[in-house]
Design a protein that fits this description.
Layout lengths: L14 H7 L2 H4 L11 H18 L5 E7 L2 E6 L9 H6 L22 H7 L1 E10 L2 E8 L2 E5 L4 E2 L5 E8 L1 H4 L6 H14 L4 E4 L2 E3 L5 H9 L10 E4 L3 E7 L5 E7 L2 E2 L5 H18 L5 H5 L2 E7 L26 H19 L1 H36 L5 E2 L16 E6 H11 L5 E6 L12 H5 L1 H10 L12 E5 L4 H17 L1 H5 L3 E5 L3 E4 L4 E4 L2 H10 L4 E4 L8 H7 L5 E4 L7 H11 L3 H11 L12 H5 L1
Helix pairs in contact: 3-5, 7-8, 9-11, 13-19
Amino acid sequence: MAADYTEEHIRSLEPREHIRLRPGMYIGKLGDGTSPDDGIYILLKETIDNCIDEFVMGNGKQIDIEIDEKFVRVRDYGRGIPLGKLKDCASIINTGAKYDSEAFKKSVGLNGVGIKAVNFLSEFFEIAAFRDKQTKGITFAHGLITEEMKKSVKSTEPSGTIVSFEPDEEIFGKYTWNMEYVETMLRNYAYLNTGLTLSLNGKKFKSKNGLLDLLNENLDGGETPIYQIVHLVDTDIEIAFAHTEQTGEEYYSFVNGQHTTMGGTHLAAFREAIVSTIRTHFKKQFDAADIRSGIVAAVSVKIEDPVFESQTKTKLGSTHMAPGGETIRTFIGNYVGQQLDNVLHRRKETADAMLEKIQRSEHERKELKGIKKLARERAKQSKVHNKKLRDCRAHLNSKHKLALESTLFITEGDSASGSITKARSVDTQAVFSLRGKPLNSYGMSQKVVYQNEEFNLLQAALGIEDGLEGLRYNKVVLATDADVDGMHIRLLAMTFFLQFFPDLIREGHLYILETPLFRVRNKKETRYCYTEEERQAALSEVSNPEITRFKGLGEISPDEFKFFIGDNVRLAPVEMPAKPKAIQELLEFYMGKNTPQRQEYIIRNLKVETDIIDEEEEPADAA
């Protein structure tokens, strides 16, 4: 029977309570620091954004960041928060100077929440301002004041603001800072704010050439541009791009200094403008995919009152440069149309190299057309008899109410796929069974996707032949054994996706299924252990245990498998390296033809370990 619904059930939460109760509404996901979009990095970003806004307004040319285990300290040399409003700016929602469009016309944070969220989600938070040779500071714990200077005192410190905090483990759990992610964040700040120096524990980040430096650094050692990078800069827009011999498209997009990892209206406008301009310049209606094939570009715009599609500002939703102003599409279209056309007229070698690349892409696409047709016919003929895919009812590209829960498990062999198939949810979970080890696709052209039956069927199952828009599953999960062969199959599958469908990874759709290594049980309880540490803990807590070591997914019964792919499923996301150029280096080393170097690496790093089940535990296991 449902509970009564009365006035007593209506609650009003203070902002601090609401942010701590629903942190995801303000900072996206929480996470433990292993992903660059985890909450702790959003807290750091919100703090630095305030410093960047000061720099943009012409105040302070350096930001010092210190990170020591959990402790973070950020110091800018701007004007400093007005001392009388220090408490309000740190703890009262919708308070700040950014509502005054004259003071912060093109600011990153516009909602007056950022630094308050950092305060409310930290177990320790301290803010101090230095202004007009005076200083004042306040200390908080979980968003509540623990110590406050009632009056300002004299100071010889330069003007600016210091924010120190420790993210709250009550909210985030055990977390660690990945300094590679932090460095990437600071590099992006430097590229977008030429003349600004950011220091991380003494390591300095500074850019002279903006987005040109971003592309040069990320292309170094990876894809090689086939012509000199095109770099266009104006007051509210900066663009850098080049074509490489790769397929696909790669973009870095920014709005008011915010890295919009999911793109948005500004990126869509640029992709459209580049096609339109090149067609006009060369007086030929090239296919848009041929024009953009192999392009690597960075796009940054500054607009007034940007509207993002989420609190974490990863996708721009605005359609206009400013309220009542021209559209972003028109602004970027006109700018690219004029400036890029000028470059192509002035730099004949760039125009020639670009034209050759587009024509090669066109030739390859037409060559693939015949192969695609044969592959489609083959896939159609084998569809009735093909037992590789056991589909589900809900799909990402449908209007099914469970579309976002749609998952495809890619398994090795029939035994593993059999267990998962029997245990899965037929509404949301599909299974695709690989036959042995797939082909190493590194360095191969897209032809291999269509000529190799297994890859072709996998691509068809995913629905991504014509792009990620047709993706049928929100989560694509590699479910292989935790042994050498399983790891190899996993690596081959990841190589396939990195080579031909990197956006599947970039947009967070690819995962690895974590399954237990051990089962520790007695007649009263059963524990599944994913690590040796969990096994040791279970042994100390379960009396007279029977221990089973799972050597492969096929050994796990369907009755047990439902626990590992249900509500408590453990999925490890496959993520792009913080430095994109590292992708090609990793693939070249692990999947290239440098067998002697790999052998030497394996021999040098080989570790021999004893059986992880101790001899004294064998009788219990045998029992």
